[in-house]
C-alpha cells in the first residue's frame, strides 16, 4: 500500500516535471523562465527524496538535497543576477512559433513513450513508467535549445536537459552512485559560471545576446 | 416513493442552479471589486440587474428575424437542461443518466451557435465581429474541453458524469497525474468559456475588445435579461462541471436529506473558494490581444492532450 502511494507520488511528480518542461517551452519572458526552471528542480528534488524513501537508498536523500540547493536556489539565483546585470529585455525571440513548438513537444512525448516501451517491459522498478517522461523532458530541453535564439534561454534549455537526465537516472536505476552525482553537480555549477562569463563576453562584443549575431563572425568570401 | 424523491431532488437542483447562479456571479464581481480597491455593489447586484431588465420594454430592430427573438429563450433553456444533468447536489438525479458529458458540451455549443447567428441577424457591424470572434474562440476551446473530458473519462472508464463522479468520490482512483493536466486545461478553458479576463472582459463595452458583449449588443429588455441570466448560469455550470469532474468529494451519494444538506453546504464552500481563485487569476493578468488567444487556448489543448497521453503512459 505504501509502495503504491509512493509510485503514485512519483508519477505525479513526473507529471509536474513535464508540465514545467512544457511551460518553459511556452514561456516568452526570461524571468519567468528562470522561475519555472527552479520549480522543475523542486519537483525533481521531491521526487528524488520520495524514490529514496521507497527504495531505501539513503544516498538519494543527499542527491535530493544537492538538487534542492543547486537547482532550486543557487542556479536560478545566478541566472537571475545575470539577467539583471545584462539588462535583458523581456521578450524572447523564437525561430518556430510557440504553438507549433508545443505540438512538436507532444510528438516528442509520444515518441519517447514508444522508445522506452521495451525498457518498461523488462524493468521491475516501481518508477519504470516515468522513464518516458524523463526522456521526453531531456528532448524538450533540447528542443528549447534549438528553437530559441537567445543565449540565456539556450542555457536554461541545457540545464533543463540536465534535469531530465537526472530524472531518468532516478527513475531507471534509482539514481547514479553518489560520486557520479557529485561530479555532475559540480560540472553543472562550473558550467553555469563559465556561461556567465561567456554571456558578458557575447554581450560586450555584439551588444546583444541573440546568437544569430554570431553569424557576423563568419569571414566574407 | 423513490421516484418521487428523485424528482424532488431534481427540481431542487434546477431551482438552485437558476437561483444561485447570479449570486455566484455577484460573489465573483464583489471579490473583484475588493481586489481592485473599489466598493462593490454586493452579491445581490446581478438579481437587481435582471429584475430591472425584465421590467423594461423590448426594442426590436425592424429586420429582426425569428432567430433573434428565439435565441434568448434557447440560451436560457439549454442552460437549464444542462443544469438538470450535472450532479451538483446529489448523484441521484432523475435526469442525470439522460446525457453524458459530450452531449452537455454539444448542448452548450448549440446555444453558442444560435447566439452567434443572432449576433449576425440584425446586420450591425459589431454583432458580426463579435460572432466571428466567438466562433474563433469556440473552435479553440471545444477541442481542449473535449480532450480534458476524455482524460477524466479514461480515469472513470465512462463518459457519463455519474460514473465519473462515483469513481472519483469513492477515492479508488488515488493520485493521478493525468488529472492534474486535465484540470489545468479545464481551468484555462473555463476562463475562456466564461469570457473572463485574459480572453474577454465581461464588464466593459469597450468597442474593439468585446467579444460576447458585441454579439448581444442589440438585445434589450427581457431578452437581454434572459441572455445575461443564461450566461451567468453557464458560468456557474462550467464551474460545477469542473467540481463534478475534479473535486467531487462531498456530493451526496444517497438521497437522504441530511446528506444532501451537507452536499449543498460543501458546494457553497467550494464555489466560494473557486470564486477567490478565479478572481486572483483575473486580477493577476491583463487582457490578451485577440491573436495571442491561440497561444493561451493552444496551451489548454496541449495540457488536455498531455493528460490523455499521461493517463496512458503513467497509469
Written account of the structure:
The complex is a heterodimer of chains A (221) and B (315). With 221 residues, chain A is mostly helical. Chain A contains 7 helices and no strands. The relative contact order of chain A is 0.15. Chain B is an all-alpha fold and 315 residues long. The termini of chain B are far apart.
Write the layout of secondary structure elements.
The complex is a heterodimer of chains A (221) and B (315).
Chain A: H1 2-26, H2 30-55, H3 59-85, H4 98-122, H5 131-147, H6 151-173, H7 178-206
Helix pairs in contact in A: 1-2, 1-5, 2-3, 2-6, 3-7, 4-5, 5-6, 6-7
Chain B: H1 2-35, H2 45-55, H3 66-85, H4 101-121, H5 125-156, H6 161-169, H7 177-193, H8 212-215, H9 221-246, H10 257-284, H11 293-313
Class by SSE composition of chain A: mainly alpha
Radius of gyration of chain A: 18 Å
Which structural category do the helix and sheet elements of chain B fall into?
mainly alpha
| Average pLDDT level of chain B | 86
End-to-end Cα distance of chain A, whole Å, is 70 Å
Largest interface: A-B, 26 and 22 residues
Order of helices and strands of chain A: HHHHHHH
What percentage of the residues of chain A does DSSP assign to strands (E)? Answer: under 5%
| Low-confidence regions of chain A | none
State the helicity of chain A in percent bands. over 70%
Amino acid at each position: 500500500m505504501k509502495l503504491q502511494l509512493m509510485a503514485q507520488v512519483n508519477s505525479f511528480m513526473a507529471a509536474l516535471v513535464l508540465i514545467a518542461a512544457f511551460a518553459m517551452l511556452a514561456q516568452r519572458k526570461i524571468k519567468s523562465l528562470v522561475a519555472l526552471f527552479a520549480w522543475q528542480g523542486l519537483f525533481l528534488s521531491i521526487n528524488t527524496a520520495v524514490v529514496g524513501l521507497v527504495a531505501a537508498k539513503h544516498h538519494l536523500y543527499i542527491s535530493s538535497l544537492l538538487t534542492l540547493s543547486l537547482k532550486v536556489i543557487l542556479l536560478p539565483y545566478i541566472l537571475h543576477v545575470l539577467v539583471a546585470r545584462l539588462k535583458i529585455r523581456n521578450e524572447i525571440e523564437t525561430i518556430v512559433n510557440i504553438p507549433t513548438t508545443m505540438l512538436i513537444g507532444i510528438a516528442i512525448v509520444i515518441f519517447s513513450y514508444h522508445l522506452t516501451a521495451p525498457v518498461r517491459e523488462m524493468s521491475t522498478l516501481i518508477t519504470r513508467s516515468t522513464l518516458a517522461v524523463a526522456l521526453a523532458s531531456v528532448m524538450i530541453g533540447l528542443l528549447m535549445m534549438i528553437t530559441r535564439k537567445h543565449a540565456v534561454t539556450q542555457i536554461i534549455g541545457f540545464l533543463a536537459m540536465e534535469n531530465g537526465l537526472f530524472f531518468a537516472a532516478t527513475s531507471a536505476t534509482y539514481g547514479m552512485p553518489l560520486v557520479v552525482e557529485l561530479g555532475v553537480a559540480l560540472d553543472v555549477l562550473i558550467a553555469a559560471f563559465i556561461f556567465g562569463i561567456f554571456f558578458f563576453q557575447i554581450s560586450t562584443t555584439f551588444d546583444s545576446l541573440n546568437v544569430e549575431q554570431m553569424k557576423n563572425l563568419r569571414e566574407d568570401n | 416513493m423513490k421516484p418521487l424523491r428523485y424528482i424532488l431532488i431534481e427540481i431542487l437542483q434546477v431551482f438552485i442552479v437558476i437561483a444561485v447562479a447570479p449570486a455566484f456571479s455577484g460573489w465573483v464581481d464583489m471579490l473583484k471589486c475588493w481586489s481592485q480597491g473599489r466598493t462593490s455593489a454586493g452579491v445581490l447586484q446581478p438579481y437587481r440587474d435582471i429584475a430591472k431588465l425584465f421590467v423594461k420594454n423590448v426594442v426590436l430592430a425592424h429586420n429582426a428575424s425569428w432567430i433573434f427573438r428565439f435565441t434568448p429563450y434557447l440560451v436560457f433553456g439549454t442552460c437549464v437542461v444542462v443544469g438538470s444533468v450535472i450532479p451538483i447536489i446529489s448523484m441521484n438525479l432523475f435526469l442525470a443518466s439522460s446525457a453524458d458529458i459530450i452531449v452537455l458540451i454539444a448542448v452548450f455549443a448549440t446555444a453558442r451557435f444560435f447566439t452567434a447567428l443572432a449576433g449576425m441577424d440584425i446586420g450591425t457591424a459589431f454583432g458580426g465581429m463579435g460572432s466571428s470572434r466567438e466562433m474563433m474562440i469556440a473552435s479553440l476551446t471545444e477541442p481542449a474541453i473535449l480532450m480534458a473530458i476524455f482524460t477524466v473519462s479514461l480515469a472513470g472508464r465512462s463518459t457519463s458524469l455519474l460514473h465519473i463522479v462515483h469513481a472519483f468520490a469513492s477515492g479508488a482512483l488515488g493520485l493521478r497525474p493525468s488529472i492534474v493536466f486535465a484540470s489545468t486545461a479545464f481551468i484555462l478553458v473555463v476562463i475562456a468559456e466564461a469570457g473572463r479576463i485574459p480572453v474577454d472582459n465581461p464588464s466593459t463595452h469597450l468597442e474593439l475588445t468585446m467579444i460576447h458583449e458585441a454579439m448581444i449588443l442589440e438585445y434589450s429588455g427581457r431578452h437581454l435579461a434572459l441572455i445575461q441570466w443564461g450566461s451567468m448560469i453557464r458560468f456557474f455550470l462550467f464551474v460545477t462541471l469542473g467540481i463534478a469532474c475534479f473535486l467531487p468529494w462531498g456530493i451526496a451519494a444517497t438521497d437522504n436529506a441530511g446528506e444532501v444538506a451537507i452536499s449543498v453546504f460543501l458546494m457553497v464552500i467550494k464555489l466560494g473558494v473557486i470564486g477567490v481563485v478565479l478572481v486572483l487569476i483575473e486580477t493577476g493578468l491583463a487582457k490578451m490581444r485577440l491573436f495571442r488567444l491561440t497561444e493561451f487556448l493552444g496551451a489548454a489543448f496541449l495540457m488536455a492532450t498531455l493528460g490523455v497521453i499521461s493517463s496512458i503512459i503513467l497509469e
